[in-house]
Amino acid sequence: MTETTARPTLEAVAARAGVSRATASRVVNGGDGVREPLVERVRRAVDELGYVPNQAARSLVTKRHDAIAVVIAEPETRVFADPFFALQLRGISKELTVHDSQLVLLLTEGRDDHARVGRYLAGGHVDGALVFSLHLDDPLPGLIQGAGVPTVFGGRPGWSDGTPGPVYVDSDNRGGAREAVRHLVGLGRTRIAHIAGALDQTSAVDRLDGFRDVMADADPRMVVESDFTPAGGERAMRELLDRCPDLDGVFAANDLTAAGALRVLRERGRRVPEDVAVIGFDDMLPVAEQTDPPLTTIRQDIEEMGRLMARLLLRRLDRSITGRADADTPAAVVLPTTLVRRASA
User: Fold this and answer.
1) For residue 340, what pLDDT band results from cuts at 50, 70 and 90?
2) Do strands 151-154 and 192-196 pair parallel, antiparallel, or not at all (unpaired)?
């Protein structure tokens, strides 16, 4: 048998601080209207006693669960293999930690998982949701709307879910793609191909549009759709070389795709960048700095995207509790991109 020590109560905190229970509760639960000297006394008592608020009781006062669902519309095999998701989750986690909120990760493997996620969100377990990597036919936006959960999306929405102006954070995918292709043109490349991402996602569509902005007269055979993975990049690069063996430049939709393309070019005896210049998109350092040769790419701040998603959601939640107007919270944030030059182009 082991002895258990009774958990300190809010009454004990109030007694130690010399304040009423109501005052201690307001301080512990983040309420207003308590003078700063009393706030400091309560906080000191909390630290001295090791008091931990009862979450159920706290939720009754604050109307918050201090938990945020992060919904990634991809199977776990993709999520844990792609450093993009790790970077975005790190940004989200850092911001939620600052605000003492928990991250609840939800992944979707198939249609049954969509229904499960919808039921969970509708069950009142979390204060809001951060959702990214959606596909155009994804039912999640409708399920989330039905659950009535405040939501911020990662990436430009490409659907109509019946609500005006969904809140989202994205990068300038189209502008970054234009900069990548212009760089290849500036190197004197004239037969430039594009390995697109999965075109049921808006980021891939925007990057393809950016490619076409510069290469308006490009041969349609110079564009192959892939899936943002190294294996997809390999398949697409083989197809492009079979179609257009004289190509001299490649803009890949992301760094992982570019890494796959570089492997195939090396197998086929093409020198990079002498014969074929290659540019990726993302600037994920575990990938871009370790390819052979190191990858020229378009940098988007993936971790910052995650942080801003969380910050926008928490701001919306604070507004809903206080009743203050939400006019100063933007509906969309689009982060700039920059070209990072390395050896591949």
Assistant:
1) very high
2) unpaired
